[in-house]
Amino acid sequence: MSNSTQAGGAPTGVTPLNIPRPEFIAIMAGLMALNALAIDIMLPAFPQMTGHFALADSNTVQFVLLSYLLGFGVAQPIYGPLSDRYGRLAPLYAGLALYIAGAVVGAFAPDFNTLLLVRFLQGVGAASTRVISLAAVRDTHSGRAMASTMSMVFVVFMAIPVLAPALGQLIILFGEWREIFIAMGLVAFALMIWCLARLPETLPPERRRPLTAASVIAGFGLVLANRHAFLYGLAMTSFFGGLFGFINLAQPVYVDVYGLGPYFPIAFAAVAVLMAVTSFINSRLVLNFGMRRLAHSALAGFAALSATMTALAALDALPFFAFMALLCCMMPLFGFVGSNLNAIAMEPLGAVAGTASAVFGFMQTAGGALIGAAVGQSFNGTVLPLAAGFLLASGGALILILVAEKGKLFSGAPIGN
Questions:
Q1: What pTM, to 2 d.p., does this model score?
Q2: pLDDT tens digits, residue range 165-175?
Q3: How far apart are CA 72 and CA 137, in angstroms?
Q4: 15: helix, coil or strand?
Q5: Residue 330: helix, strand or coil by DSSP?
Q6: Which among 249, 322, 301, 270 has a CA at the least distance from the CA of 409?
Q7: CA dist 184 to 41, 62, 117, 188, 391, Å?
């Protein structure tokens, strides 16, 4: 399918950027990074929160992540049609306001159940940032240019897993977990001011869809009926389930299994730096080699490495240096997989970019969060649940892509992909 057509054959159009491309990428990355911040900055606070709320075991505190991710996932199908009808900015500002309010209220949560509710609502607010950022990139780009821009967004976005755990650890050293919520609110408020001052509307009135039951159903129908895009969406769900499993288990694996204590953010950051580097490399390579060659190769490599990690963990032959060596080979491959799979799924759906972003976001976040929660709750004091989670998630994604491509990987893609 060419870049000038949508599902159904109508012209999609691409909105010219009215701000410098680097600034646009920085804003999009900042919006997506709010989600990563809300997740990664919490990890060093797990032990303190477990004690503060007198939780039954260390696995229970992981629900702080799950409740947020479920809110983040289930709200995206709402923001999609709203952004296709009213433009990208109004739903974005409503979501940012809810995110900020959730951060402020979370700082004063009197009990764990209240905290989980607030985190769910904070996730509902953050859902707008994911839907609008991907839709805005699709509004202004297509084909390999879209994949390249998404990769650059991920470069900046991946700085958050580098910085957020260290920031959370610093706050915990001098304060308590409540100050972490205040920090999240301040960052979101600053970004909201930047968007108000500089971010243009990327969906012109002539390309907006009516907000009626029939149009919403038709929009979702266009996404779900596109077999190729939908299977790629399911593949993203499976693959990111492995990432969410890692996020759930990073603190207990680094601290409880390998005894890193307060230094675990350094190991966590080292992996994130490599992911950011490969996202930058992908933004260059994708223009020459295409999305499929890079994504399929990286996914196959990830599955092979995760099988190796699983075998070593099952044999109790995975010391820290071997674990980190494998992890430092595996996690950078996310830089070649995530942005490319998103771009492949979004490419034929430019006319319903907001709805498509919402559907894929719901699948990826809610489905991935549930997979990640299952991996996290299976923690038994060893690395095996994490390694097996990686293997199942990447293997499932590879199978779904094989089905989507009718058994043919790396080539045979539509023009521009």
A1: 0.73
A2: 888 989 998 98
A3: 20
A4: coil
A5: helix
A6: 301
A7: 9, 18, 17, 6, 33
